[in-house]
Amino acid sequence: MYVGKPIKRIEDPKFLTGGSTYVDDIELPGTLFVAFLRSVKPHAKIKIKKNHNGIFTGEDINPGSEFPIPIEETTYVGQPLAMVVGRDRYEAYDLLESIEIEYEELPYVIDPQEALKNDVKVYSKKESNIYEYKKWEAGNVEQSLKEADLVINGELYNQRVIANPLETRGVLAYFDGNRLNVWSSTQSAHYLRRNLINFLGIDNIRVIQPDVGGAFGSKIIAHPEEYAISKLALKLKRPLKWIPTRSEEMQSAGHGRDKRLRFKVGVKRDGTILGIEGTLIADLGAPYPDANDDEIGNVHSTVRMMLGPYRIQNIRIEHYAVNTNKAPTQSYRGAGRPEATYFIERIINIISLELGKDEFDIREKNLIRELPYKNALGITYDTGDYVGLLNKAREYYQRLKNEANVNECVGSSMYVEITAFGPWETARVLAKSDGKITIITGSGPHGQGDGTAFAQIVADVLEVTIENIEVRWGDTDIISDGIGTWGSRTLTIGGSAIYKAAEELRRRLIEVSAKMLNADTEEIEYKNGVLFHKKSGKSVTIKEVIQNAYSMGYSLDVTYVYNVAKPGYTVPYGVHMALVKVDKETGSVRVKKYVALDDVGKVVNPLLAEGQIVGGAVQGIGQAIYEGAIYGKEGYLLNSNLTDYGFPTAVEVPRIEWHYIEKGFSSHPTNSKGIGEAGAIASTPAVINAIEKCTGKRIVNIPPKPEEVI
Fold it and tell me: Where would I find the Aldehyde oxidase/xanthine dehydrogenase a/b hammerhead domain in this sequence (predicted)?
């Protein structure tokens, strides 16, 4: 059996030996390089003079429309406004200087709270800066606040951060006279293809996802540059490549979070939470439909998951999703769930400090006891043992407290999240004549190690060695359709599709072997890749069956579409804890040790799962004390490079321990739930809660400045 074992990643040898292929590694004869002229104004009317034939604007890409490339009006610094092509990237960037552009500056607004007033319009063609307003309500909030022994008012800001994967976005597009071929650093080849079909009005498009150097949500949506380069490739009939600089990437893509909550919470003296009232302001950045619509889903997730793992029946949240003259926000690892956990777990810590009670006692007082459970805003929590996990976490929490020295405190957070979204996913499992098994997934892994987990699943179903299996994805030519990789869905939903396809392949192998051995299928025993006739004792190997199947009229190429039943997600949960040192003289903060305890159902590969927790935790620690996209009053991103934008390096990363229980199995064939975002969800509030304990000061904005810590 392979499932449940810490198998090393089968994907890694090519990366370790320089055999990987990213977009920029792909060379086609006659390739021209593209550079984009980007706005240097947060809001302005624009006029671009085409003083040579190598300049292309929105009139060429989307005539009569302002999207994806604006024609008349720019709404944020870094927005792509025009394109040039050169024989290499250096010539292309030099040619940008040949573009003459006139800006007629317009009033702009950077602060979403100011944007709400609508005194200044972010975009002149929009009647309001408010993209969406919604009131979420359950129970009787007014009565709950009246009955409370204590009503706590507060404000919390989950700041704007930038995804910053190692590999920037990148596109290579080529029309070969028959169809458009697009190589993109994307999280889903099929999703991008669907968007290009809608935009270009043609369907003969092939999209290839080569190796991808990280994404964290920033490569889900179709970006303006992907649309523009694909359209221009059709026009010029030459291969076109675009790879942005790091500063371009940071100015224009991968921005996430940026939500502010003002709240009231009513509590009893014993720590019982009676009700929460609040206003959530989400900064969507500039109008761009692909990004804004993506982020609205994240806003909804923030509100609906804000109740956490607690029995809170009274809640009223008004949310305002508002446009500003900044880069558009979009999904970033966790996509709304980190903000939800941040808000409720910070509230738990504040209640703990106000009442002088241990935060674990506050949690236990309010914790959901029986599952399944539907929270007041309609989210169904499926399986698990919340109380049992919390009690186990107390042991690790106490150990960390015992390790703490002067000016060191332990913070914690408990999360629930929704993962493994549908509505479906595809898989193709086929047997080759040499006996090898090929897995093709419609999802789009990009560094998580899912290929290894997929191979483990199929190896167990077909009872073959993992070395006998290859895994492929990321090409719309090799599987008919697919969804993609995001929302911690790939292993559970993609893996379940693969599991079911492998089951059908196993059934066919048994059927073929039965005919070969003159037996009924019920008389066949399948064991370790050999098929035995129980009565005669004769046997055939899986390779022999494969070599005979097609001549006997059987296909061993199985495609399966796995549909996800309602509610359409799974709900993992856990408790994360951070031992934090605060230097009261300098205001510096360091996380010394981090302990995570999770229940994500069946852990298919503990090594992969631990890697996801460690990576996510480091990102969340980064958000807590190092990161933040800083805009100046003039509308410029002030830290648009890796020198100015704070990151935790290997020096700052603490010792991280991961522990898990397997109680909350999902109903999917894999029995798993998602784990890819848990670390990023739980770590930020755990760290900030520790800092708040050490300083005795209420923290509103993060990362806290040194003067706020001293």
Answer: 17-107
